Amino acid sequence: MQDKRTSLPARHELKYFINPAEMDALRARLRPVMQLDPHCKGGRPYVIRSLYFDDVDDSAFYDKQAGVMHRDKYRIRIYRYSDKEIFLERKRKVGDLIQKSSVQITRRLCEQLISGDPRGLQASSNPLLQDMYVQMRLRLMRPAVIVDYAREAYLHPAENVRITFDLGLRSGLHSFDLFNAELPTVCPHDRNVEILEVKFDRYLPAHIAALLSGVEAERSAVSKYVLCRRFEPLQG
Q1: Are 137 and 130 in contact (CB under 8 A)?
Q2: What is the pLDDT of residues 55-79, one digit of tens each?
Q3: N or C: fewer beta carbons within 10 Å in the chain?
Q4: Which of 150, 152, 148, 149 is nearest to 38 (CA)?
Q5: Could you tell me which residues are beta bridge partners of residue 15?
Q6: SS3 18
């Protein structure tokens, strides 16, 4: 297992709902100033699939709903439905900041975790894998829902700014078949909107803020995980 991104610095993360017309207008502003993410091959968005986990009390779901300021979410993330790179990730909310920890895992371990089996993780030297062991043993953490979307991302080196359009959000239907590109999915909302995210380190540079100025977008504490749990059973 390769530890590529064990602990990333805490960052600001702003989220919005944005309609297609406003998204096109913002995209036209961003392209001359920001670099398209290299993962957007040929200028096309890249597919992200995440399998989120939750504990026996659905704490990640209910803590988000309650606005708890310090909380964790765990997920396995893949790209383009491929098993070439598989990451176990923890996304930690610390007040107004977000911090991510991530470790690359094998498909064998991935399938072991999906089956609910954490055996062996306690012997790992990686803190995230050790933490996952504790969560699965003590909190009975298990897979909860698959979340799909396509990401169009723009980058700028100043304050490590990353602006993303997350397109076509879909929820898996009672299945954890992570690598199945034909998995049936449904849209978890009935609005003609996409998700805009603005991420940066200490502050948003003025020239980037100017690009966003005047854009009609609805600020929201949107959670793709919570939206996609709409069709999944909850404990309480």
Answers
A1: no
A2: 999 999 999 988 888 899 999 999 9
A3: C
A4: 152
A5: 197
A6: strand
